[in-house]
Amino acid sequence: MVTAMKKREDVESLDLFSMTDKGNGTQRRERTLEKGISFSSKKKYRSITQKIITGIDIGTSKIGAIIAEVDDTNDVKIVGVGVSPSDGLRRGVVVNLEKTVQSIKRAVDEAQLMAGIEAGPVYVGIAGDHIHSFNSRGVVAVSGPDHEIKMTDIRRVMDAARAVSLPIDREILHVIPQEFIVDDQDNIKEPVGFSGVRLEAEVHIVTGAVTSAQNIYRCVERAGLKVRHLVLEPLASSYAVLGEDEKEIGVGLIDLGGGTTDIALFFEGSIRHTAVIGLGGRNITNDIAQGLRTPVDQAEKIKRKFGAALSKSADQNQLIEVQGVGGRAATNVPRRYLTSIIQPRVEEILTLAKREIQRSDYRDFLNAGIVLTGGGSMLGGIIELAEQIFDMPVKGGIPQGFAGLVGLARTPIHSTGVGLIYYAMHHGSDEFVTIEDESGNDEVRFFNKYFNMVKRWVMEYL
To answer: Which of 3-12, 83-92, 388-397 has the highest mean pLDDT?
Structure first.
C-alpha cells in the first residue's frame, strides 16, 4: 500500500472521533454583478459565513460534480452542477487513467463555471464489484477508576472492532458503528458518559481493492483537486434520498448505476448490510445496441427517451426510428420490441438484488420497503416491476432538502453527488468562508474548524 493511501486510511479512521483540526482549505470567490462589475468595496454588507463543499460521483457512464454552499444554519444551496461522459471506467473500476482524469476535469470545470467559485477539497464516491463488506465486533474494558465511558474508550473499542485480518490487496474504506453495548445494556447510540465495566461495539466494515481505490484517488488528484474522503456511493446516496424514519423502521436502498447496482440496508437507524452487483444501466444499453443493431451512443439515447421496464407502461405500438450501424439505413421498430429487450435485463438485476437482500437476513426488517435511485430508476414501469419482484412497497428516491439549482440537481442521476454533500456536512468539512464582512472588504477569509466532540460523534453515527 502506498504512503498516500495509508495516510488517507489513517485520516478516515481518526475522522470517526477526531478532536483536532485537519487543516485549512484555500478558497476565493469574486462576486460580480450581471455585467461583470465587481461589488464595490466601499459598500457595507452583512457578514456571511459559508462552507464550500464539493462532491464528485465517478461512475461508469457519467461523472457528476456538485458544488454547494452551506450556511451557518446548515441550509444547503447547490450552486454548481457539472456532468461529463465517463469513458475510462468499467463497472466502477478505472481502466484508463487519462480518460478518467479528463472526464473529471470537464465535469468540475462545468460546475465551477456555473458556481463562479473554485472547487476545494472534494468528497469522492467509490463503487464497483471490488467492494466487499461485513459486520464486526470489538470489546474493551472501560478505563479509569470511575468507569465512566470517555471518547478514549470509544476509540479503543472502534480500533478493536476494525482489527480484522484482510488480504494484502484490500483496505478498509469505512468502519460504521451500528450500536454499542455497555455491560448488558444494548442498542446504545451515544455511550459517552455511561458507567460500565465492559464496552462493546458492533460495526459495519466496508473494504475495497487497494489498487481500485488508489486509481480513483490518483485520477482526482491529477485533475488538480484535493481528495478529502472516498465514500461508498450507496452510503452517500442514502443521505440524499432516505429519511431518518425510514432508516429507523428498516429500508433498502438500491442505486441503479451505469456499471453496477449498489445496495444498502438500514434498520434501527444504522446501516446493516451493503453489497455491489456487477450489472447496471450500461448492460441494458449494450443489450439495446445489439438487439436493435445500432451504435451504443444511439442505444443510450433510445433508452433514455423510450425505455420502459414493463410493456404496459407506455404505448407499445409507437414506432421508434433506429439509426443503423456503419452508415446503414435507419429502420423503424415498434416500442414493444425495445421493451422486450430491456425488461429481461432489468428483471435479472432486480432478482440478483433480491437474492442479496435475502442473503443478508434483513429482508423481513425492511418495513419501509425499497427505495430505487440512480439513473436506472428512471425507466418507465420499473417501480411496478420492482414491487412484483420484491413483494414489498417500492418508491423512487430523488435528492431532497436543498435550494439553488433544484431543477438540475433534483434527479436520481445526482443522488450520489448530492449525498456526498450531506455526508461531508455530517462528517465535518474544514472550509468556512466569509464572503463579505461589515467593512465591505470582499476578501475571502478562512478559519480552522472547531466543533463539539460529542455533537460531532452523534452526527457521525446516527
So the answer is: 388-397
Which set of grid coordinates corresponds to residue 176?
A: 460504521
CA pair distance 294, 317, nearest whole angstrom:
20
- Rounded CA separation 5/220 (Å): 13
* Three cell numbers, residue 65: 460534480
Residue tagged 440524499 (cell numbers): 240
107 pLDDT above the threshold of 90 = yes
Q: What is the pLDDT of residue 129?
A: 86
- What fold does the segment set 132-208 form as a domain? Dna Ligase; domain 1 (3.30.1490)
Q: What share of the chain is helix, strand, coil (3-state, %, to 5)?
A: 35, 30, 35
222: left (phi over 0), alpha (psi -120 to 50) or beta: alpha
Q: Which residue has the cell 458518559?
A: 193
Distance between CA atoms of 279 and 418, rounded to whole angstroms?
23
Residue with cell 446516527: 462
* DSSP-assigned states of every residue in 22-64: -------B--B-TTSPBPPTTS-----EEEEEEEEEE-SSEEE
What is the residue type of 54?
Answer: T
Pick the CATH number of 3-41+51-129+401-461 from 1.10.287, 2.30.30, 3.30.420, 3.20.14: 3.30.420
Partner residues linked to 126 by β-bridges: 232
Kindly report the number of other CB atoms within 10 A of residue 139's CB atom: 12
**pLDDT tens per residue, range 45-74:** 434 567 899 999 998 889 999 999 988 888
